Model the fold of this input.
Amino acid sequence: MGQNSSKPPPSSTQHVFKSTRAKDLELHIQRRVHSELARLDAEHSKRLAELKEQISAAPDSTTESIHPDARTPDQSTSPGGPDHKAAAQGDKLRELSRASVQKEIEMLQDKLKRRRLKEEVVKDKAVEKAKGEVVNCLRVNDRRPLDCWREVEAFKEEVGRLEREFLGKIMG
Done:
């Protein structure tokens, strides 16, 4: 009997083994995820550098957009020749960069419009006044917040008016 009491029950050693195994597995998974993320980051950085180099190597497309008929000698329309293939690739790159720049400009314009609308919402004096009245009422009537129903209704009306104006700008 004395010998059996000094041994830990087999289930506790099994539990420790499972816990250690789970921790090792978790660390292994974390290492793999970290290495995969590092690999993807390096791959994307390399691709970004390649794209930046291609864009910077491509001739400026602003002159072409101003004078579409003006062509440089290497952009001749005559078929054949060693420079023809390079010129076609350059044209494709310019078109891609022009399209991506145009798309980015449109996205920035949309963001700017949304920001202006948000600023208009924040600067609306009637909404700010109604909000202040609700806050003041709730501070005065901290034990009886239901006494502020008039102020809350006025605030709701102002917000509703502001929503209608906003929808009118977007829809109309």
